[in-house]
Amino acid sequence: MVMLEKILSNKWNPVVKLAKMLLPAFTNNFNGQVELLDDLNDHWCAAPHKKERNWFIERTHDLALKRRLRITFISGDVHAGGCGVLFSGRNVAPSKDHRFMLAVITSAIVNAPPPPAVITIVNRLARKKHRTLFYAHTRENMLPLFQYDLEDKKQSNKYIIGARNWCAAYIDESTGELHFDLHVEKSKGSGETKVYSMKTPRPQYGAANKQGV
């Protein structure tokens, strides 16, 4: 993601210069920056936010352990759908892992998604291992949630889907699991959606367990 930011923010990049000449909508009228760069800068993994983001995640891990909470992040405004997961860098069951947290990405429902080429690039970047929280005994990945597209066909872009969507969350009272259903619009304006589901287990840990590492 940071690499893509650097490419798009480089005004001397020949691809960016050519796109600006041929595609006026490629840049915004406010400051002449690449339009997509604005969305990338909103991303919580963007370079300007990385330090603050890591600090915040560490604090939420501490809070989850002390208060025996299951914390989930819900974010959006990138006009796409997906789900990341944070977890301990050890072989710990999610139910006993205070670092196990989902990061659900849901779109601003009225906004169109990025172009397919951009979605493909972001999916490729999502495959790489993220190491920014290794020092805090935390790993992070994107979930391959979209192995089948909106027409139930196998696809290679498994991590991010370029379609408008909304998310519904509910608790299964019988298990204590927290469920998240991502309702993804099959075609623009159709009102018909396909559901992709995620869930987090009831927390079975606590400060008394001393899972600090």
Automatic annotation (TrEMBL):
Residues 23-172 form the PhoD-like phosphatase domain. GO terms for cellular component: membrane. It comes from Malassezia obtusa. InterPro entries: PhoD_2-like (IPR043904). It holds the Pfam family PhoD_2. This is PhoD-like phosphatase domain-containing protein. Residues 191-213 are annotated as: Disordered. It comes from the Eukaryota.
